[in-house]
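Good morning,

Attaching, inline, the backbone tokens for the sequence recovery test we're adding to the shared suite. The designed sequence is right after.
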């Protein structure tokens, strides 16, 4: 590598050294007679590496100093096979260093995906959809009204229409305000039909009770059953009710495990409601995800509640 240092005429500081080529003379100046050759100058010595100072220099005339540095040859000696941390092996040997877990991706996917089929499909204690159906064969009807009344004569649900009656009228167990009717109570259909002449006829169907049933809502399922239905579903006297096993299966599948579940017990007295509520919570806690910490007990008193009471299990705000 060559570096040319040009010195300007006159005293200069070391900072005045400029890299490049210094032109001798001024462009366009008239030539003059050559001066006599100067006496040989002493060799210019630069300080060795590691310190020293040139101070100030006085250079007469236009001069150049050429310094040559010898750059050592760059030798790269890198052998990938000999480099630390690198080793060659076959593809199969590399893959076999750690056995792939084929089940882990499926487990991760199942944590967020809903199962296509409900677990324990043999448990069908909770009815879904139409809980009762009125089938009739009344002719010549101009207007009609169907009422669902309970054992105390209170109207639970009502439908009206004009013209011929439908061959079959179902009821899904919901009251007129959209809340589910309790199980364990007797209900009956009361049909009032009027013909074109204004004659009125009334038909009262046989009484029936609602089975344990399930209502789907925007906030999850709502499950209803009576104490008698719950105890009748005891599996061979083991103390484990198949109705509660099915209820826990549905709740685990269709509710968030971090959200609470409300167990609402209704009975004729507060003591009876509290007792059945505590029994259901105790039996349901080992079956649902989150255990007893998710279950909140609420009790209600109703004079028309059946013997033993009724129970409703749902997420808050379901109905």
């Amino acid at each position: 590598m060559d570096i040319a240092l040009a010195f300007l005429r006159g005293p200069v500081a070391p900072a005045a050294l400029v890299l490049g080529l210094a032109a001798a003379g001024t462009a366009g100046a008239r030539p003059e007679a050559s001066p006599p050759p100067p006496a040989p100058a002493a060799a210019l010595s630069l300080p060795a590496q590691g310190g020293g100072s040139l101070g100030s220099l006085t250079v007469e005339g236009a001069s150049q100093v050429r310094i040559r540095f010898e750059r050592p040859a760059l030798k790269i000696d890198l052998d990938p096979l000999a480099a630390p941390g690198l080793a060659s092996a076959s593809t199969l040997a590399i893959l076999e260093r750690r056995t792939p877990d084929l089940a882990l991706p499926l487990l991760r996917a199942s944590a967020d995906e809903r199962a296509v089929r409900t677990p324990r499909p043999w448990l069908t204690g909770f009815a879904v959809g139409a809980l009762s159906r009125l089938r009739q064969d009344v002719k010549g009807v101009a207007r009609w009204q169907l009422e669902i009344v309970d054992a105390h004569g209170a109207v639970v649900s009502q439908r009206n229409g004009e013209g011929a009656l439908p061959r079959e009228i179902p009821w899904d167990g919901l009251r007129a305000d959209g809340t589910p009717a309790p199980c364990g109570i007797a209900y009956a259909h009361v049909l009032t039909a009027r013909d074109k002449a204004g004659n009125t006829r009334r038909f009262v169907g046989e009484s029936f009770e609602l089975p344990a049933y399930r209502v789907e809502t925007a906030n999850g399922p709502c499950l209803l059953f009576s104490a008698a239905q719950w105890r009748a579903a005891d599996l061979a006297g083991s103390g484990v009710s198949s109705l509660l096993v099915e209820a826990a299966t549905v709740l685990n599948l269709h509710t968030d495990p971090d959200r609470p579940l409300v167990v609402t017990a209704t009975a004729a007295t507060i003591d009876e409601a509290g007792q059945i509520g505590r029994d259901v919570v105790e039996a349901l806690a080992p079956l649902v995800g989150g255990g007893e910490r998710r279950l909140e007990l609420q009790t209600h008193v109703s004079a028309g509640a059946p013997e033993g009471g009724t129970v409703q299990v749902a997420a808050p705000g379901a109905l």
